Amino acid sequence: MSTHPIDQLVLVYNADAGLASALQDSAKKLFQLNGCTLCSITHGVAGERTEWKECKAAFGVPVAYFHRDDMPDDLRAATS
Length: 80
Prior knowledge:
Layout lengths: L8 E5 L5 H12 L6 H6 E2 L2 E2 L1 H10 L3 E5 L5 H7 L1
Parallel strand pairs: 1-4
Antiparallel strand pairs: 2-3
């Protein structure tokens, strides 16, 4: 079995990019409504969670973030 090193972690938020979407997600967090699960893991109402920052640093690889509406075409093709 061959191994392939992980050189980057790619995360895709189940939300659209932009201020309106960010405000909507913050409201969902405040009212404990179902929103983007990845958003809840990585961000609180006021910004990136401290726990996530520590976890991300422990990965030891770069982390790339995309929203469902701003993914590069090659990533979109790989995830559909």
